[in-house]
User: Which sequence fits this backbone?
C-alpha cells in the first residue's frame, strides 16, 4: 500500500486505486473501439487524401489546415462525428503563413461538426520551446476569415484562414475578393 502525505494528514491509496486512476486517465486519450462501430473506413494514400479533403470542405475548413500526405487509414462515424486519420509514422509540418511548427502523431482523432473540430488528439504546436497540445480548431464567424486553435487549458490563438489555404484556394479567394 502506498502512503502519500497531503498536508499533515496521510493519504492511503491501494495499487488498485492507482491503476484505476491510470486506466481512467488513459481512456480519456484513447477512445474505445466501439466508438468506431459503424464507421466509413478508407485505406490507402490516394483514397485517404480524397476522403479527407472532402471532409474538410464539408466542414468549412481550408484544405491545407491538416497535412494529408502519406495517410494509410481514415475513418468517420457520421452519427457521432468521430473521425480519425492514421499515418505510418509521426510527422512535423511548418506552416509558413503562421510561422508555426506542428507535430502530428501516428493517429489524429477528433469529433467534428460544421466549422469545428473538438476533443482533438495527436496534434501539438511548438510555442517558443514547448510543444502544446491542440484540442480544438474552429471558425467561429466565417465572415471574419479567422481560424481559432485552442489548447486543453482553454488558451487559444487565431490566424487568418488564408494561411492554411492551398495555392488553388488562395487563387480562388483572391479572384472573389477582386469582384
Assistant:
Amino acid at each position: 500500500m502506498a502512503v502519500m502525505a497531503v498536508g499533515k494528514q496521510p493519504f492511503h491509496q491501494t495499487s488498485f486505486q492507482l491503476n484505476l486512476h491510470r486506466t481512467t486517465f488513459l481512456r480519456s486519450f484513447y477512445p474505445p473501439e466501439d466508438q468506431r462501430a459503424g464507421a466509413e473506413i478508407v485505406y490507402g494514400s490516394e483514397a485517404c487524401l480524397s476522403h479527407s479533403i472532402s471532409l474538410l470542405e464539408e466542414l468549412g475548413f481550408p484544405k491545407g489546415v491538416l497535412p494529408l500526405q502519406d495517410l494509410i487509414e481514415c475513418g468517420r462515424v457520421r452519427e457521432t462525428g468521430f473521425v480519425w486519420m492514421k499515418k505510418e509514422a509521426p510527422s512535423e509540418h511548418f506552416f509558413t503563413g503562421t510561422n508555426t511548427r506542428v507535430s502530428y502523431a501516428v493517429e489524429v482523432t477528433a469529433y467534428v461538426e460544421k466549422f469545428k473540430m473538438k476533443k482533438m488528439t495527436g496534434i501539438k504546436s511548438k510555442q517558443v520551446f514547448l510543444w502544446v497540445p491542440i484540442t480544438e480548431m474552429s471558425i467561429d464567424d466565417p465572415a471574419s476569415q479567422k481560424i481559432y486553435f485552442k489548447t486543453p487549458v482553454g488558451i487559444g490563438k487565431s490566424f487568418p484562414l488564408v494561411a492554411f489555404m492551398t495555392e488553388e484556394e488562395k487563387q480562388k479567394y483572391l479572384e472573389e475578393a477582386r469582384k
